[in-house]
Design a protein that fits this description.
- The structure holds two protein chains of two kinds.
- In chain A, the strands form two sheets. In chain A, strands 2, 4, 5, 6, 9, 10 and 11 form a seven-stranded mixed sheet that branches. A four-stranded antiparallel sheet of chain A has the order 1-3-8-7, with no helix packed on it.
- Chain A is mainly β.
- Chain A has strands spanning 5-7, 10-13, 19-24, 31-38, 42-50, 53-56, 65-71, 74-79, 88-95, 105-106, 110-114.
- Chain A has no helices and eleven strands.
- Chain B contains no helices and eleven strands.
- In chain B, a hairpin with a 7-residue loop joins strand 9 (86-93) and strand 10.
- Classes of the chains: A mainly beta, B mainly beta.
Chain lengths: 115, 113
């Protein structure tokens, strides 16, 4: 298994531009999580999906952030317009919830820099 | 909702010494407590976890203890080695079956040779 796949691995953009981050969870996993990691705020949960349905988006910082999961094998996190304070590492993680409690598997992350 | 506090934020030990990281949680319904290790520039990876029906779990040099009454759990690393240097995160489940975790802020462990 290839594990959780994220793209791009690095993104540098200018303030005001739209940014789209992509995630492919592990095949068969039915929960997907988006996190943001910064030195100041640590690892923050932004949103998570179960069976492609958004369950909790209370961590999404503001309306500039949106996330979708059109099918079981793909999710996107979009920032429009981007701002310098959005610079962070964004992780996607997946989990197989039909086995109850257990590990979240993290992707390699996308390092976003907004100039 | 659940809140997880983690201490200390940084920890420096000599190689061979033990390291202890402590976490407290607020929601008595939480029943799953994993620990993740994140090396510099890498992704967080699970190193050990414990469920609320046990008080202690060991895996070679690492162990986790859980005190449900006091709502705290700890990570113990014995005979530390330089490769143990990393950021360690504790987490607690909110009791749901979807796998949602609430993470602590992390502890940066430095093991000096």
């Amino acid at each position: 298994d290839a594990g959780v796949i994220q793209s791009p691995r690095h993104e540098v953009t200018e303030m005001g531009q739209e940014v789209t981050l992509r995630c492919k969870p592990i095949s068969g996993h039915n929960s997907l999580f988006w996190y943001r990691q910064t030195m100041m705020r640590g690892l923050e949960l932004l949103i998570y999906f179960n069976n492609n349905v958004p369950i909790d988006d209370s961590g999404m910082p503001e309306d500039r952030f949106s996330a979708k999961m059109p099918n079981a094998s793909f999710s996107t996190l979009k920032i429009q317009p981007s701002e310098p304070r959005d610079s962070a590492v964004y992780f996607c993680a997946s989990h197989i919830s039909n086995r109850g409690l257990g590990e979240q598997f993290f992707g390699p992350g996308t390092r976003l820099t907004v100039l | 909702g659940e809140n997880v506090e983690q201490h200390p934020s940084t920890l420096s030990v000599q190689e061979g010494d033990s390291a202890v990281i402590k976490c407290t949680y607020s929601d008595s319904a939480s029943n799953y407590f994993p620990w993740y290790k994140q090396e510099l520039g890498k992704r967080p990876q699970l190193i050990i976890d414990i469920r609320s029906n046990v008080g202690e779990k060991k895996d070679q040099r690492i162990a986790v203890t859980l005190n449900k009454t006091a709502k705290h759990f700890s990570l113990h690393i014995t005979e530390t080695q330089p490769e143990d240097s990393a950021v360690y995160f504790c987490a607690a489940s909110n009791g749901g079956s979807q796998g949602n975790l609430i993470f602590g802020k992390g502890t940066k462990l430095s093991v000096k040779p």
